[in-house]
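Before going further, it is useful to explain how the protein records used in this thesis are read. An example of such a record is reproduced below.

***
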Amino acid sequence: MEEISGAEPSQEIAHRPSTQLARTAPLNKQIQHYRSINELDLRQTLWTGMPAGFALALAQTGELATGLLAIPLLGIAVVSGVKLLRRRTKSVQAGQAEYKSGDYTAIQMWAPFLPALGWLVAIPLDFLGFEALETPPLISGVFGGLLFGAGISFGAWGMWNQAFRIGKRRIKKITEKQSLDGVSESRMEAVEENGDILGALVTAGAVDGNELSVASLGKLMDWDNEEIPALQARANELQSSGVVKISGQGLYQKAKHWQVTITPDGIRNIAQLGHR
């Protein structure tokens, strides 16, 4: 077993996968690692979504020549999509127990109403007589492909990391005042000793009320069901130090159903540790 500095070998989970970082590795590295196995790869998603978008738009032009161009593009999208699916991301995301101010950007809030802008633009153009202008099929296919492809790609990619981005905004809101409330040496030591758990929770967006079950946490961390008691024990230690909060202990006997979230005090200690 790989030797872990600052911790006894007996404290490490047996048969830890070689791709898994040590529990005391820096939190940023933990987050990068868990995001790489939990989310869709943006480049691969673009290689799938953009050709699919262009194929769809070109096929809708009604022209044989542009329609034939859609065939190889569709083939590229299928091949890339198969590679994307074979990657088998963990797809673990925290549940959003409550909505808070700042969870979503202004663009996300207005996105459902964006299609109406097309009508607002089209009505005056029709009134001015521009509806009679014809757009070449290839140009309309290209512009339509850009819109469809970007929508498919970034829509799919965003679905897989939405919880992380919400958690990131909550972290920013908690730390923007640089308050030291709840910061202590013992809590920072707990953060440093449990970077793997906290990195996984941040990746899943389990921050400031958004909760992740112990079972899902174990899935993201590549821990077997037999190792859940060890994960439970470490989560309890983090709760005792005030870094995380566990709910559901009185409702469920099995620890895998308990819900975990990083507390605001935990976030401040994580931030303070990063300033060292």
In short: Confidence is low (pLDDT under 50) at residues 1-18. The radius of gyration is 24 Å. Residues 29 and 262 are 18 Å apart (CA to CA). The chain has eleven helices and three strands.
